[in-house]
Amino acid sequence: MVWSSLFWANLGLGLAGQKSIGLTPESLPRVPQGPERSSQPNIVFVLTDDQDLHLDSLNYLPSIRKHLLEQGTFYKRHFCTIALCCPSRVSLWTGKAAHNTNVTDVQPPYGGYPKFVSQGLNDDFLPIWLQDAGYNTYYTGKLFNTHTVTNYHLPYVNGFTGSDFLLDPFTYQYLNSSYQRNKDPPVHYEGKHTTEILTEKAYGFLTDAVQEKKPFFLAVAPVAPHSNVKFLVDGPDPDLQAEFSPPIPLQRHAHLFPDAKVPRTENFNPEEPSGVNWVKRLPRQSQENVDYNDHFYRERLRALQGVDELVEGLVDRLGRHGLLENTYIIYTSDNGYHIGQHRLQPGKECGFEENINIPLIIRGPGVPKNATTQVVTTHTDLAPTILKLIGAPLRASFDGEAIPTSHSEIAKAKMKRHEHVNVEYWGFALGEGKNWDGERLHLNNTYKALRIVGKSYNFFYSVWCNNEHELYDLNQDPGQLKNLLAKNTLVDRLLGHPLPKVAARLDSLLFVLKSCKSRTCIEPWRALHPAGNVRNLHDALSPRFDQFYEVQQKKVEYTRCEAGYILDAEGPQFEKDGLVYRYGSHWADWV
User: Exposed, middle or buried by CB within 10 Å (0-12, 13-18, 19+), for 377?
Assistant: First the structure.
């Protein structure tokens, strides 16, 4: 093992280590708030990796429930816009959809840290804007994929006062991680659990932040509950040189939840196939397969216990420094996760609710306590939200808008906030458990999708790169098992209208969103109806627009499947091929 003396000198003991030598939170002295400290709020941002919402992981995290859910607001309809680690994180830190960052994969040529740099984003993302606003910024844990022990300095990540990044190819090795602090060379931690290392680093940066008399932003990004991944020099699959296994919990948590099982929802390993494309061809899982996936599920819950303790320690320390009441704590994940739903092996990358609807909890000054809201929010909203919370100017290039965080803002948002989520994906889907059926890597997983939630409707609509279509009514079919656009559908009406009429409106909305920029992403109906007379799906269903939507408007379609964002494969684009309805007349005109 290689240990850094600077690491121990700067960071101190983790929560478990303190308890082991008799230092409990109650025994620690309260550090008074210095008179020179800024009155601006601090931000602590906890970003887990692949944490589910629909598999009930939050129910197994008592400290997060106590300190965040009971003391803050749970955003029940929060979505990532792409269900994959690196592009989702880039969208989160830039406030832009993946088709605008052009970071759409976990590795080059379409993604990863080198792509983030080549797109100019290392000079134009949240920590830099926060520093411009007078904040100290700290980050520890996983930032992006393909941020490695060989390219960490090509260039260094910009924007952080202090940083200690997890690096590939060791990012997902729970007992064999590599971290790189500031501009020091990487340090390898063979045999020590990555969550304990991260916890110590996070507490150290919090101490550093408190000692400065400036407001601070601290991001903590544990790898849990991501699978344990070991990259192979010469693996059996030429398309996948990696070995995936369940996450490894801390030893003290390894015995927990012996009877826990994946929730047996209607869409868990269903008797009949569901979905389209490769999903529809998946075989039903055997009992042995299901039993293994239950074990995989339990290991995920166990791995998250270290994160729960981490949050407990952060809250304790903020309280003892007199900073808790002036600090926003934001908790979320990069994307969701499925295990067994639709017969899928453990993984993400799909547009199903388990993959895109993810945890978001915010506590802090003025945020309602023990509250839940149904307003629609996305990862592209988080950078604008943080800037708004600290009083910094927002950027015209944002594809998202600030999330409401007060009673009055949430009440207003129920009436006026947008109702849609733009979802997109390029490339592969991967089964991370055992290779039960000989096909764990699916390469034709490119799609555009729309999630829309409004008064009396709750739909998911998608178009795949092979031009198959899906439409699910989640009010009637929360498991997304009945594709209303399948040939054998028995449903011919939605919302009191013919099914094709509703589908045409959804397709036009997706047509705008799949290539939208800035305000068009936030107000796509206004792009179609500049007069502002259409604000939601109900408005768009007016008979006066039938000809416009059902006959004249271009449709979403692909010219071919690609593994990344290549414009000439994306089909017609709204900017040059779409229609705008001219209010006051019964005709449409080209943009």
Answer: buried
